[in-house]
Amino acid sequence: MCSESRTRFLRCIPVLHDFLETNEVKIEKSIATTIQDHLKSLDSNLRNYFPKIDEEIQWIRNPFEEDYLKKLKISATEEDSLI
Known about the structure:
Largest sheet: none
Order of helices and strands: HHHHH
Protein name: Zinc finger BED domain-containing protein 5-like
Organism: Sipha flava
């Protein structure tokens, strides 16, 4: 089996992890490194496309959540138009 340090990241890919565990397959260090590098790159690129949302526009995710509606400082008419 693989060493714990090389397979730790595989837990985020359950199908691959289960396959390796079930079949007692060793993954080469170069392949593990390639997968890790790809995942890090993917994470970085996704953060560029989907940056952290500012608190003031969090309500866009779920405009019906009460906490967001209270923070918005909008009139009752505007709130009703959301609902």
